[in-house]
Amino acid sequence: STTTSTDITLRLPDADATRALGTAIAGLLRAGDLVILTGDLGAGKTTLTQGIGAALNVRGQVASPTFIVAREHPPLPHADGTRGPGLVHVDAYRLGGLGELDALDLDSSLADSVTVVEWGRGLAEALAEDRLEIDLERPRGGAVDGDDPADDPEAGTRTATLRAVGPRWAGVDLRTLGA
Ligand code: ADP
Ligand code: MG
Fold this sequence. Notes:
The protein has 179 residues and is an alpha/beta fold. It has a domain at 13-117 and 151-159: Rossmann fold (3-Layer(aba) Sandwich), CATH 3.40.50.300. It has 4 helices and 7 strands; from the N terminus they run E-H-E-H-E-E-H-H-E-E-E. The radius of gyration is 16 Å and the shape is globular. Magnesium ion (MG) binds next to helix 2. Magnesium ion binds at residues 45-46, 64, 118.
């Protein structure tokens, strides 16, 4: 049976907070892990991936991979000479299905890397029973005409809801990410 963690939801007031969450998540990640990012265009999926890539110290600019289905970022050495996992950044938006993902022949890099899939829900789950699922949302303030600036839909605040699925994550407390 598959274990699923309790959802935790974090507020991300600005893009730096989204990047910082990626950095914090990277501290939990190891080679072979899969992260699935869900959220509308502009929700912050690539920004979060940039935080992960920066913390892993991978080569190359983590950018929106929209016109490239997958981009591999090999690990660079940290200051102490060690290397962590690389990053495979996949944009599943244009993928027709799992067959196309398979056709990318990512298997060897998947084992050595952390794989982050944007738009992967419903597709990437088949890659691994263990996965970290992150939903990024730009909450629609109910009170668009209200007095509270926090209700302003232009304010930009996002929320991230995290859920860990599978035995790999059984001992991991995602609540540390909010601290
Ligand atoms: P996606 O990959 O989901 O389409 P991006 O990561 O490209 O979204 O982000 C779109 C824009 O939103 C970028 O300009 C980014 O700086 C900004 N952004 C990301 N997170 C936040 C946030 N928490 N608050 C405000 N703006 C954010
Ligand atoms: Mg993107």
